[in-house]
Every structure is written in structure tokens, then in C-alpha cells.
From TrEMBL:
This protein's name: DDE Tnp4 domain-containing protein
Superkingdom classification of source: Eukaryota
PANTHER family the UniProt entry points to: PX DOMAIN-CONTAINING PROTEIN
Organism: Porites lobata
Amino acid sequence: MSSFHEVQEQLLLSYEDGMLDEDEFLLLHEQFMPTNPNFSYEECDRFSLDEMNDAECLAEFRFRKHDLQILSEVLQIPDSFRCYQRSVVDGMEGLCILLRRLSYPCRYSDMISRFGLPVPVLSMVSNDVLDFIYNTHRHRITQRNHNVLNPAALQIYSNVISGKGAALHNCFGFVDGTVRPVCRPGEHQRVIYNGHKRVHALKFQCVALPNGLIGNLFGPVGKFCRECLYKERVGDFNFTMFLTRHIGRVKSERLM
């Protein structure tokens, strides 16, 4: 299938050869006008991590240059990512595209000069890398993570919170919620419309631990009672039942 740019070039050639008159050319040119801006990327160099210094990596990706390789290994990033329309990028490049996108609010067009890729490809790569990381590591926050939710660790959390002057001596984490605005969907708009924020949004709720980690995550949901999210079920397992069966009591009081 020809792109809008190629069709417009053919129309211009047809007009110059006299195959189209002025009215026909203007009508067809307007009909095949792309709705998205046409950003030039051919003149930009492709991404090269070797050409970036440590300060640039920290500013654009929020990771130092030598830490990016460690992050790639920990996240089990593959050697390459292949988009559904057959664009292929290196695994490290794909990770940097996602980090650049998440480091600071920006448009994909702002990333063209760094990566030398068109906006649609940047969008597809960013989504593919994000999906890969979530599918590979989601169990760490949606299911029981024994490394951060074991009895010894919960005792440390409760001691730290209590040591800061908390009224409760058996609190190990805090229920935190966030509303993430999204584009207005074409269907079922009422399901995700948030009357309080006056935007269409998805809600997430988590147990935040005092060490800054997420102990468990629930979401996304649309129009749902925020206070009731954790009442029965959190994530992929019953959080209340997990506390009752596996945590027991700390300092003769049940953890909260």
C-alpha cells in the first residue's frame, strides 16, 4: 500500500504531465492529505549508545551508561525486537526508547533526533518493550513476591514505620491509588469516565512498602469504588487470605 507522501508525489507528476487539471489536482491532493504531521527522520543518525556520554544517558534515560547493560540483563531484554510491520530494532535500543519515553513527558516526535526512527515505529517499539517487560515480570507485583513479602521483611517494615512515630505498631505498608488519564474511547466511555477528575482514566491501587517498592498491584479498573478495591481481592491472589495464612502475627498484633 502506497503512503500518503507517495500518492501526493504521483498526483503532482500527473498534474505536471497534464493528466489532471487544477481543480482535480486540488481535490485529490486534499483528499490524500495525511492527518498526522510528516516528520522528517531520514537525515537523523541512528541511535548509538557508544556515542553518548554518562551525563547524556543520565539526563535522557535516568540511568548511567554502565548501568544500562545491567538493567538490560536483569530485565532479560532480548537481542532484538520485531514490530508487527517488520521493523526491527536492537534490544538495547528498544530499552532506551522506552526509558526515554518514560523519563519525562515528551512526544515521540521529540525522540526522532536521538533515534532516527519515524514516529509510528517509535510508538510500536515502546509498546512492544513495555509489553515484554510486563509479561515477563508482572508476577513480581501481581502475585506474592516472597522476596519482599516474607514475615522477616514485614517485621522490618513495621519496625521502621513504628520507629517514625506511627500510631500503629503493626503497619507494614500503605494502600496507595493513582488515576491515569487515557484518551476518550470510542465505546463504553462511561465505564472509565472519572467524575472526580473529569477525565477518562484507569485506576490502579497498590501496597507501597517503606523501602519504596510496590508490594502488590491491582488494576487497571474503570469506574470502581476506590475504597473497595482491596476489600476482597488484590491482583491475582486474595491478599487478605495471604496475610491471614502466611504472615501470622507480629508483636502479638495482626499486621495491617
